[in-house]
Amino acid sequence: MIDRRAFLAAAPFSVLAAGCLGRGQSDERATGSEEMESGAATSGSGPGLLEAHALTAVGVQLYTLRDAIAADLDGALGALAEIGYQEVELFQLHGLTARELRERLDAHGLRAASSHYGLPLLRDELDATIDGALALGQHLMVVPSLSDSERTADGLARVADDFNRVGEAVRGAGMRFGYHNHDWELRPLESGARPIDLLLDRTDPDLVDWQMDIFWTVQGGADPMAELERRAGRVTSVHVKDRTTEGEMVDVGDGVIDFVNLLGAAGGQGLAHAFVEHDNPVDAIESVRRSFRYLRSMGVAR
């Protein structure tokens, strides 16, 4: 255990609270995302997951279970349903067509509310990708990362313009479009401007949401609570993963991030989806089970 008052006095982030230091590893996901095939999408029901500033359904990003899924897709999906998860976020189709994957999810009572898509795919095959998402009832499409060549002021300006174009098409189809951050977006460039601000300031708030990865936001030196207030209404989904004071990624509840207050505040500002994630868990099923149990015990999920 760490000294709660000593930590809080020194912590620069309002959403951090002292807790039990847990296990886990902090290897970051590769910045190059696995692109979904043309027309890839996911099943799901509409938004409306909020009640009294609390999420009534907590999902999981399937990247956490990539090895378990590779070994036994149905076994992994069944385990998620048994734990109590109701929705998932995809990062690929696992060798199936979108229709086949939807059938597997439906069989386990799961809905895929969101998917991650590489920006090159959306640039080159936007209409086909949207059509696939519509066919399966998806209501959130997210770009999970950007290439190194686009992490400059000029590159981000081009990306922002593409985001506006993609977001307009996605909104026209009745869905939401957003961007998922890592830590580099919160760190200032030589000019002093932060990449996340360059992206969000240049994009239309009605067209482009921010999928805030809470761990990476803190890792990048920012305060998620302050970012929520600054970008009120734009954080419609989050990745929920915990962090120790030393920056180690751990299961939710084993670190120091105050998810109860953070998710409560986000719920009052438009949050619709929260996806539990751990980039490199020792035991993926046990990791997402422990995270879900903690969130349920704190009244965040049920």
Helices and strands, with pairings:
Elements: H1 4-10, E1 50-51, E2 54-55, E3 59-61, H2 66-71, H3 73-83, E4 87-90, H4 98-107, E5 111-116, H5 119-124, H6 126-135, E6 140-143, H7 153-172, E7 176-180, H8 195-202, E8 209-213, H9 214-219, H10 224-230, E9 237-240, E10 242-243, E11 249-250, H11 259-267, E12 273-276, H12 284-297
Parallel strand pairs: 3-4, 3-12, 4-5, 5-6, 6-7, 7-8, 8-9, 9-12
Antiparallel strand pairs: 1-2, 10-11
Helix pairs in contact: 3-12, 7-8
Give an account of the 3D structure.
The chain is an alpha/beta fold and 302 residues long. It has one domain (40-243, 259-297): Divalent-metal-dependent TIM barrel enzymes (TIM Barrel). It is built from 12 helices and 12 strands. The chain has helices at residues 4-10, 66-71, 73-83, 98-107, 119-124, 126-135, 153-172, 195-202, 214-219, 224-230, 259-267, 284-297; strands at residues 50-51, 54-55, 59-61, 87-90, 111-116, 140-143, 176-180, 209-213, 237-240, 242-243, 249-250, 273-276. The strands form 3 sheets. An 8-stranded parallel beta barrel has the order 3-4-5-6-7-8-9-12. It has a two-stranded antiparallel sheet with strand order 1-2. A two-stranded antiparallel sheet has the order 10-11. β10 and β11 form a beta hairpin. α3 (73-83) packs parallel to α12 (284-297) and α7 packs across α8 (195-202). The longest helix has 20 residues, at 153-172. It is globular, with a radius of gyration of 18 Å. The chain starts with a helix and ends in a 5-residue tail after the last helix. Mean pLDDT is 84; it is low at 1-54.
